[in-house]
Design a protein that fits this description.
The chain is an alpha/beta fold. Helix 1 links the parallel strand 1 and strand 2. It has nine helices and nine strands. The two termini are about 35 Å apart. Helices cover about 35% and strands about 25% of the residues.
């Protein structure tokens, strides 16, 4: 089994080294690490070139995050695909082995775990913990979704459901989760373990205005999969984050 990890980055010289180190340090023997760079103007690409384990580096202008992610999927040759962007890093060297064991033993289409948001400059300081937990199909109607950086799928899943919708600016990962797990009801196994740490400061969460924009995109995501959520689904999704600050 090969696992392809896709790292999308742009002007990430301050953080990408830790991302690359966390993949290079994995004890799983067959990893394909692909770096998709948006034509950075800093030292991001030269840092990536310092890591011998990186299988491929593409550095060119693109149409944004999800366009770059789609490029990575199309280049990936692994049986399993995961994303680890330049603000993220794995919690330890055994993460991908743990994920591979779950795919082998559970015969599932998807595997997901937990995620911790950490301070951007002091990554030892945990801001909140996203414990995804087991889910039922109806949980999506109450705002549930798994953390995308801790979500891994078989490559055939993308062949079945398609690539990320680039018409969305911040909610294409949510739409993809809905497409995979809600609309197509593909199987998923939950690993009760923190797999990824992410530096805080995401696109959809850094202001009230951007949160309203994200809510609109979340609503659009449901329309794109031709399904109807409950009236409060879109509002429950951000509210589900509140316990994450209490459960560090």
């Amino acid at each position: 089994m090969r696992i392809s990890i896709i790292t999308v980055c742009y002007n990430s010289e301050a953080t990408i080294r830790k991302t690359l180190e966390s993949v290079a340090g994995q004890d799983f023997p067959d990893i394909e690490h692909i770096v998709i760079d948006g034509k950075s103007r800093d030292n991001t690409v030269s840092i990536a070139r310092d890591f011998a384990h990186v299988a491929r580096i593409i550095s060119e202008k693109d149409g944004g995050l999800y366009h770059a992610m789609n490029k990575g999927i199309e280049l990936a040759s692994g049986d399993i695909i995961g994303f680890l962007h330049s603000d993220d890093f794995y919690t330890g060297p055994g993460v991908l082995s743990f994920v591979a064991d779950a795919f082998n033993s559970r015969k599932t289409s998807c595997v997901y775990g937990d995620l911790q948001y950490v301070d951007r400059y002091d990554t030892g300081k945990v801001i909140r913990t996203w414990k995804a937990g087991n889910f039922t199909h109806r949980d999506f109607l109450y705002g549930w979704m798994p953390p995308h950086p801790a979500f891994f799928v078989k490559r055939e899943v993308y062949q079945q459901v398609g690539l990320f919708n680039t018409s969305l600016k911040s909610s294409s990962d949510y739409e993809m989760m809905l497409r995979i797990l809600y609309k197509n009801r593909l199987s998923a196994h939950y690993l009760s373990q923190t797999l990824v740490k992410m530096r805080a400061g995401g696109v959809s969460n850094n202001s009230i205005r951007s949160r309203f924009r994200a809510n609109r995109e979340d609503a659009k995501a449901w329309k794109l999969i031709d399904k109807k959520p409950h009236f409060l689904t879109i509002y429950l999704k951000p509210l589900r984050k509140i316990p994450q600050y209490l459960n560090k």
